Amino acid sequence: MVAPVSAFSLARHLRSTARRIDEWLRDHAPAVDRLLTRAVMAAGGIPAFGQQKPVAGGPAIAFRQGDVLLLADATWMIPRWQPAVESAKAQGSRIVPLIHDLLPWSHSQFFAPLFCAQFTRWLHNMLPLADAVICNSLATAAALEQFASAEGLADALPPVGVFSPGSRPTVAVAAPRPEVAAIFADGVQPFLMVGTIEPRKNHGLVLDAFERLWAAGGPTPLTVIGRRGWQCEATLRRFASLAAAGKPFTHIGDATDADLQHAYRHARCLIFPSIAEGFGLPIVEALAQGLPVIASDIPVHREAGGDLVTYIPLGDPSHLASVLKSIADGSTVLKAPSTGKVHLLTWAESAAALRAELDRLFALR
Questions:
Q1: Strands (E), 102-215
Q2: What does the alpha-carbon distance between residue 88 and residue 68 come to, in Å, rounded to a whole number?
Q3: Which of 70, 92, 302, 342 is the most buried (most CB within 10 A)?
Q4: pLDDT of residue 2
Q5: How does 226-240 read in b/e, with b if 16+ C-beta sit within 10 Å?
Q6: What DSSP designation does 307 have?
Q7: Who's near 91: CB < 8 A, 6+ residues apart?
Q8: Helix (H, G, I), strand (E, B), or coil: what is residue 174?
Q9: Does position 55 have pLDDT exceeding 50, yes or no?
């Protein structure tokens, strides 16, 4: 008997399929992709694929003067967001989008063109409606100002604030799965990567560096934790090839919270070599657990890690291999912060900071 497919699962599958087709056209038939993108955007943008079906009998939402409509999720992926926001604003609500990054605009090479076009249109339409904008980092706020300047929207940009999202993990009540615990058993301390498998996370740089170490006879193990993302088929094939060749490499694509916390507590070092990020949560998570961090030298990583992180240049696997070799042979000792030195915000603390930032921004209007 075949289990029924939920509307949500079907919608997610359709959107994933559309993204993959768009990426293939971008790489193999760019002229066709440009025509497709223009046609879809002219027709109103990426369709909802059933995600917008109203709940039968659900109460209508009424707003009052002075209410705040905080758009905390990826509103740009909701095709009919604008009428709802305009209705709330007409009833006296103040509109505040939370922007996690501007990567579909600033680093469009890592995303499907249709999704980049939809994101850019959303920003163009959202900023004139917004009474304030909240960003998750100073780097994201700076990128938003660059967007507004480049897109002719500087005069439409409302006050911009910054707050840090909650990042303290739920206390793991369960032990890690046996197969995960085994990776770190008997004092083995692999180097660790954490993040979705997608091009901007820069897994290729780390794999190139480790292959240099392994070719020289080093047994240094590497563990990658991250679910499948997009444009990742070549990376996943490389993962499988390394495992089949017997290299000291493991990929965990379905880590639980307990698995992740166990990895942070028992790994040798976190390597976070992203080309672009909106915040860089694994950096602060690792530092809070007392785990040393090596990260790519980009502004948002310095914002997250300060002087507690070892920074490496982008695009230089030889440099990273040299750093790793010196760590492995003991000639370089990474000094991690003591556990508790880096404070992870609870969501209650984060919400209080957000409320204070909103009050500050509204006072500027």
A1: 133-135, 160-162, 191-194
A2: 9
A3: 342
A4: 45
A5: beebbbbeebeebbe
A6: G
A7: 62, 63, 64, 65, 67
A8: coil
A9: no
What percentage of the chain has pLDDT greater than the value 90?
50
Rg (CA), the chain: 22
Three-state SS annotation for 28-61 = HCHHHHHHHHHHHHHCCCCCCCCCCCCCCCCCCC
Tokens of 161: 């604030």
Per the CB < 8 A criterion, the answer to whether 91 and 61 are in contact is no
All residues at 6 or more sequence positions from 222 whose CB lies less than 8 Å from its CB, including other chains: 190, 191, 192, 193, 206, 210, 248, 249, 250
- pTM for the full predicted model: 0.82
C-alpha torsion angle, residues 31, 32, 37, 43 (rounded to 10): 130
Cα dihedral 130→131→135→138 (10° resolution): 120
- Count of other CB atoms within 10 angstroms of residue 188: 15
Position 41 confidence tier, pLDDT thresholds 50, 70, 90: low
* Domain spans, the chain: 7-49+67-162, 178-328
Tokens of 183: 């990776």
Other beta carbons within 10 angstroms of residue 166's beta carbon come to 16
Would you say 238 and 224 are in contact if contact means Cβ atoms under 8 Å apart? no
Q: What confidence tens digit (pLDDT) does each residue in 109-124 have?
A: 998 888 888 899 999 9
Tokens representing 179 are 């197969």
Long-range contacts of 308-315, Cβ-Cβ distance < 8 Å, separation of 24 or more: 308/336, 308/337, 308/342, 309/283, 310/334, 312/273, 314/202, 314/205, 314/273, 314/275, 315/205
* Averaged confidence pLDDT in the chain: 84
Distance of CA 263 to the CA centre of its chain: 19
Which string of DSSP letters, residue by residue, matches 127-138?
Answer: TTT-S-EEESSH
Classify 184 as helix, strand or coil: coil
- Which CATH homologous superfamily contains domain 178-328? Glycogen Phosphorylase B; (3.40.50.2000)
